[in-house]
């Protein structure tokens, strides 16, 4: 009986060690929007950001003054065996400024 309990505990520890800890969707979206704001502010420092419009999965249209551009969220590969929130970077299209 004791041997069975020890085996169950070891199996539980192995399974629990492989779990990933993703962020809740609203916190993940907040991280992505913050990254988009920072990237666009650096790319178009002359104009403040007026709008960020979600255009589907990992794609945002951004309006900053007279400029419009697309921001994409691109996933970065994670290290095997490590959990945690999604790692990503923001890729911007060339700004279209009138």
| Radius of gyration from CA coordinates | 21 Å
Beta-strand residue fraction: 25-35%
Low-confidence stretches: none
Principal-axis shape equals elongated
- Could you say which structural class the secondary elements and strand pairing correspond to? alpha+beta
Q: Biggest sheet, open or closed, and with what strands and sense?
A: 5 strands, antiparallel
What is the number of beta strands?
Answer: 5
SSE order in H/E notation? Answer: HHEEEEE
In short:
The protein is of the alpha+beta class and 98 residues long. The chain is built from two helices and five strands, in the order ααβββββ. β1 and β2 form a beta hairpin.
Structure description:
The protein is an alpha+beta fold. It has helices spanning 2-17, 25-43; strands spanning 49-54, 59-64, 67-75, 88-92, 96-97.
How do the strands and helices of this protein lay out in sequence?
Blueprint: H1 2-17, H2 25-43, E1 49-54, E2 59-64, E3 67-75, E4 88-92, E5 96-97
Antiparallel strand pairs: 1-2, 2-3, 3-4, 3-5
List the keywords.
five-stranded antiparallel sheet; alpha+beta; 98 residues; 29% strand; 2 helices
């Amino acid at each position: 009986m004791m041997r069975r309990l020890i085996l169950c505990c070891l199996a539980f520890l192995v399974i629990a060690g492989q779990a990933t800890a993703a962020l809740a969707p609203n916190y993940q979206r907040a991280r992505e929007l913050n990254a988009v704001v920072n990237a666009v502010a650096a790319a178009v420092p002359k104009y403040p950001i007026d709008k960020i419009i979600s255009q589907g999965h990992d794609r945002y249209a951004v309006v900053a003054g007279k400029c419009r551009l697309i921001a994409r969220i691109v996933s970065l590969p994670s290290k095997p065996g490590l959990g945690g929130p999604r790692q990503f970077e923001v890729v911007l299209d060339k700004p279209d400024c009138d």
